[in-house]
């Protein structure tokens, strides 16, 4: 074969290589930088890659980010975070956007979208709202990790974690390792959180609350009552390991009942402050609909406390409510679903103990201790006045006021002192707040006036000075 023939054959081969390379480039997305970034890291065409996903609640977004960050710290970053721009991003998942980019070019490589989310009552963190990052699977093969935050305005109410890899095993092991880090670094653990409703599409919302800081001196109850409550809650928390070793169950249910304004919620707040290492999940009002999710969260983040205020709203006796309600069954299932060995406390409050569903109140393992929080006696009313006047100067003779307030609640006494303080400020705006006999007597007369009957009722007053 002559030199010209050799040259011609080599030229033909080179042309074939160029044609194949051009075809491969077209098949990878027609030169789309987004697809090139993805396939360049994975080392396979997009059509040969697969994805595993896991959906999480919107309020798990910060924990997803914490898990991904920990995984990247362990396995390194092979491709920096990158984002996707163009098209209708709110209506597609990450993989859908990639295939649309490959086929139609509607999406391109762009900057990462970030969002700011709460991680505590006074803390916030930046999280990836839409982005991907290249790293390696536990077996060393290349993978892409994607995070997609919720977009309720487009109907996307969940956060999504996506792992793209050449094979399912690599993707699954990566996802599982990230979830293990999420469990270790859960931002909800040890927090006080309350379920509620967001203003958008009525989807659930978790709010961080500061943990109350109350001492036993801040709780005014008749002798022995607070000690009984502490023994059933704080005592089990302190000796949980030894109780479990002795074969005793840790889950406990405490029901505080009594008239409105007697201090049930105040007592619950005291217990929350005395359990600083516990996760506290609070449900009240319309948020009761999230009882199943809240119980699952409490079980996952134990030691934990579930607070259900005014539980009679969903747990009224079936005979009185003309049949069971779906939320009643959800509550019973939630309490039964938390195993006896789980370090979970159910704190329930109600103003109507007599109307509670018997399956809740009478069955062992659901409510183990029911305690009435009564109206304060004379000693209690004096103690309440002194408690609420700690930050002002109280010079009044308390005996006549204590005698005249028989049958009122703690809330009534607190409001009485507030009104007396306002009168003192009106008289002496430039002086320290000093409450004497005139201010306290006039405030009591105002609250006992016939025009204040609704106020007394709302404060739970059942005293001789006004109707309940």
UniProtKB/TrEMBL annotation:
Region (Disordered): 446-468
Residue stretches of biased makeup (Low complexity): 450-462
Matches recorded under InterPro entries: 26S_Proteasome_ATPase (IPR050221), AAA+_ATPase (IPR003593), ATPase_AAA_core (IPR003959), P-loop_NTPase (IPR027417)
Domain of life: Bacteria
Gene3D superfamilies: 1.10.8.60, P-loop containing nucleotide triphosphate hydrolases
Residue ranges constituting the AAA+ ATPase domain according to the UniProt record: 250-377
Name of one Pfam family that matches: AAA
KW Glycosyltransferase (keyword) present: no
Keywords: ATP-binding, Nucleotide-binding
SMART domains reported in the protein's UniProt record: AAA
Family stated for the protein in its record: Belongs to the AAA ATPase family.
UniProt cross-references to PANTHER family, sorted A to Z: 26S PROTEASOME REGULATORY SUBUNIT
Protein name according to UniProt: AAA family ATPase
């Amino acid at each position: 074969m002559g030199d010209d023939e050799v040259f011609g054959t080599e030229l033909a081969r080179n042309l074939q290589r160029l044609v194949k390379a051009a075809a491969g480039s077209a098949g990878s997305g027609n030169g789309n930088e987004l697809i090139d970034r993805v396939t360049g890291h994975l080392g396979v065409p997009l059509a040969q890659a697969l994805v595993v996903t896991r959906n999480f609640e919107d309020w798990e977004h910060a924990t997803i980010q914490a898990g991904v960050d920990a995984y990247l710290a362990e396995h390194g970053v092979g491709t920096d975070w990158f984002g996707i721009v163009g098209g209708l991003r709110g209506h597609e998942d990450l993989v859908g956007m990639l295939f649309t980019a490959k086929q139609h070019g509607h999406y391109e490589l762009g900057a990462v979208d970030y969002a700011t989310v709460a991680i505590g009552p006074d803390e916030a963190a930046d999280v990836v709202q839409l982005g991907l990052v290249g790293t390696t699977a536990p077996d060393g093969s290349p993978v892409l990790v994607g995070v997609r935050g919720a977009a309720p305005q487009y109907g996307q109410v969940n956060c999504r974690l996506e792992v793209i890899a050449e094979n399912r095993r690599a993707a699954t092991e990566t996802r599982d390792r990230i979830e293990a880090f999420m469990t270790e670094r859960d931002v909800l653990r040890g927090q006080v959180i309350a379920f509620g409703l967001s203003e958008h599409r009525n989807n659930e919302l978790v709010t961080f609350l500061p943990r109350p800081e109350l001492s036993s001196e801040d709780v005014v109850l008749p002798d022995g009552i607070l000690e009984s409550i502490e023994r059933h809650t704080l005592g089990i928390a302190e000796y949980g390991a030894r109780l479990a070793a002795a074969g005793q169950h840790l889950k406990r249910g405490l029901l505080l009942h009594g008239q409105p304004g007697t201090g049930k919620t105040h007592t619950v707040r005291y217990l929350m402050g005395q359990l600083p290492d516990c996760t506290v999940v609070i449900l009240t009002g319309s948020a009761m609909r999230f009882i199943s999710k809240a119980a699952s969260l409490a079980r996952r983040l134990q030691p934990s406390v579930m607070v259900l205020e005014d539980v009679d709203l969903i747990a009224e006796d079936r005979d009185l409510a003309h049949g069971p309600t779906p939320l009643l069954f959800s509550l019973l299932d939630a309490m039964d679903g938390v195993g006896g060995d789980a370090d979970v406390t159910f704190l329930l409050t109600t103003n109507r103990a007599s109307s509670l569903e018997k399956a809740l109140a009478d069955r062992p393992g659901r409510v183990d201790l029911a305690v009435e929080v009564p109206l304060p006696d004379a000693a209690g009313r004096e103690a309440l006045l002194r408690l609420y006047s700690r930050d002002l100067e109280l010079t009044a003779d308390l005996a006549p006021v204590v005698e005249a307030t028989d049958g009122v609640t703690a809330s009534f006494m607190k409001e009485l002192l507030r009104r007396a303080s306002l009168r003192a400020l009106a008289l002496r705006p430039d002086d320290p707040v000093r409450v004497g006999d005139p201010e306290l007597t006039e405030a009591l007369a105002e609250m006992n006036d016939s025009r204040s009957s609704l106020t007394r009722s709302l404060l739970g007053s059942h005293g001789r000075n006004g109707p309940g």
